[in-house]
Amino acid sequence: MSEPAPPLSRLPTLGEDGAVRVVIETPKGSPNKYAYSEAFNAFQFKMVLPEGMSFPYDFGMIPSTKGADGDPLDILVVMDAPVFPGCVLEARLLGVIEAEQKERDGSWERNDRLVGVAVKARTHAHVEALSNLRPGMLDEVEAFFAQYNQLAGKDFKVLRRGDAEAAFALIRGGADAFGQAEG
């Protein structure tokens, strides 16, 4: 008899050919925010965004990582059409939006957003770096996260944008932090 599969949050971090494994939590176009709960081994409904607001791209996590906020690292995935919560895919890292958010208690916490493109995307197959994205796209994404956090009573401040190597450095650090938390 084979062993049961690990929870989605504990899947291997890396896929093939340098791609990262991603578990989608909230699909593009959804006004509902979902997050994976390892305790329930299911996706939990977190909140409804205000009328007219929705996630601009598929949003998920990098399994077997731990960010500064204690959660798996976040990633926004650009692809041809939205997928569903729980879909596992591989993405090519484009870069990172390094950011902090001010919590309700007044403390600032890092909460970076990795940006990738689905390995099997067709429309965006040519995208190799943040600079290949359409003009203004990252400004819109940053504005979305600022508004999203503001509605949750938090401030969101972009520190800088980093390239794919900066994104991989965050993933290596997040994988190390996850391993230390497990050990």
Automatic annotation (TrEMBL):
InterPro entries: Pyrophosphatase, Pyrophosphatase_sf. The keyword Cytoplasm does not apply. The keyword Metal-binding applies. It is an enzyme of class 3 (hydrolase). Pfam families: Pyrophosphatase. Its cofactor is Mg(2+). Keywords: Hydrolase, Magnesium, Metal-binding. Its EC number is 3.6.1.1. This is inorganic diphosphatase. The lineage of its organism: Bacteria, Pseudomonadati, Pseudomonadota, Alphaproteobacteria, Hyphomicrobiales.
